[in-house]
Amino acid sequence: MTTKIELIATTPMGLEAIVARELKELGYTDLTVENGRITFPAEPIDICRTNLWLRSAGRILVKMGEFQATTFEELFEGTKALDWPDWIPGDGEFPVDGRSHKSQLSSVPACQSVVKKAVVEKMKERYGTEWFPENEGRYVIEVTLLNDRAQLTLDTTGAGLHKRGYRNVATEAPLRETMAAALLQISRWQPERPLYDPFCGSGTILIEAAMLAWNVAPGLRRSFNSEGWPLVQGKLWETAREEAFDAVKDDVALQIAGSDIDPAAIEIATANIKKAGFGKDIKLSVMSAAKIKPEGEYGVIVTNPPYGERLGDDREAEAALRQFGMSALHLPTWSFFAFTPVAAIEHYMGRPADKKRKLFNGRIECNYYQFFGPGGLYANRKSQSSEK
Hints:
13 helices; Rossmann fold; about 35% helix; alpha/beta; 7-stranded mixed sheet
């Protein structure tokens, strides 16, 4: 008998459409898209597949239930009515996280305590014991209260999906792997075009591009909380991982390169790229953005330039943007994509962006500035943008 469940893919603000597109490409079509989350019907093996494959999502949650809760009694009874023992074994660890917004039950610690007691009472009924050791497996419960409605979930992921496993060391203020993947997907870059990052830092954008090009599932190198759960048996993970390994296309030629003015950053990027398995396929060099000479025509630059609020030096950040603009003069056929909070980038590029998209780097509000070059897809997009 197939177990039907509901999953939630959480998303950073502004990336809901990107994650929804990823889900559709994986074959999930019945999607409910809301701010910061996408809910969809699934089966237990889809916990494995979505954790392994989603590039821009934050984590995968099992939706246990949702109900009105304006009193602690309603929260207790609604939580107790859910099927916790179907998921959590008698020796499982089940901490409770919580959030509350625009709800009468505004004390998060109190809500966490009520949910914990309700789950324990439900577990007592199933397992016939008064004490739970909580020493095997991790089943993180989250109670989210919004407008007096409580939603209860189980976190299948553990460490966020941005933790790919290839980045042991990072430069100062690194770009999250999930955001790097989203920037690439928004750019619609394809492997037949050259790709370059002149502020490559830890090499995250370059590695994510290579993983996209070779169709490498981003979660292949890590483990997840739900491995070993009773309803997500090891054979399901084995099946999903075999599917992912079989899908790799490492015969695709890569035209991916990057540079940074900081030799220490290039040293870190080299180590990360090697660990990710692309040591022979991604080229790196130490140089300023003004001197870059990427190979090929009709290429794509995707980058996260340094800026003062992030790295603490406005003059250096301004100089970096000026160099970025200078590089565009020598690459007339290329398209440029820059993720930054600095509006002056349009001044340094010498023209307004063809498109802008508001996104957040942590808590810093940024724009993704898109300057389309001539030829193919970008020429068409530029024409469409000018008509709006």
